[in-house]
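Page 37, continued from 36.
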């Protein structure tokens, strides 16, 4: 899984999850990692299968959609200025996501492995704390070291 392109943004403001998802869709199209069908597919998937997750001390969202909309594997990490409301994946209200981790995968089996690794690390409070607090220019390296490098 070491071939994922990693994009990082901090300091963005979104009024709601739809605005955040629209941003992700357009940014990934502009970077050439997804097809033009990706933005709509991302919104549709989130509406049917919400991705907000309440962790022990923080909340995140992991938006994604079917591999057929991707051109190459990528991950887009966003640390918004203020938490963004996402519906919970367990259908129990919403969470205020402090971190958005958009996954763009070309191989569904690889997505499963990535999610296993990601969830394993997200159970460690120091991992999420670090993603939320390291300087923006260090986020990609930290994420790569803890998520992508171990399974490469």
């Amino acid at each position: 899984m070491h071939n994922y392109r990693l994009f990082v943004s901090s300091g963005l403001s979104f009024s709601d999850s739809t605005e955040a998802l629209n941003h992700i869709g357009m940014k990934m199209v502009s970077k050439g990692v997804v097809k033009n069908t990706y933005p709509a597919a991302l919104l549709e998937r989130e509406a049917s299968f919400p991705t907000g997750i309440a962790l022990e001390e923080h909340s995140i969202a992991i938006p994604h959609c079917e591999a057929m909309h991707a051109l190459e594997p990528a991950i887009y990490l966003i640390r918004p200025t203020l938490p963004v409301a996402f519906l919970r994946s367990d259908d129990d209200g919403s969470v205020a996501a402090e971190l958005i981790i958009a996954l763009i995968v070309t191989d569904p089996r690889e997505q499963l492995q990535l999610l296993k690794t990601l969830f394993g690390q997200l159970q460690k409070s120091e991992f999420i704390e670090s993603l939320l607090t390291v300087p923006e220019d260090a986020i990609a390296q930290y994420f790569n070291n803890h998520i992508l490098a171990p399974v490469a």
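The first helix runs from residue 17 to 30. Flag for discussion at group meeting. The chain is about 40% helix and 25% strand.
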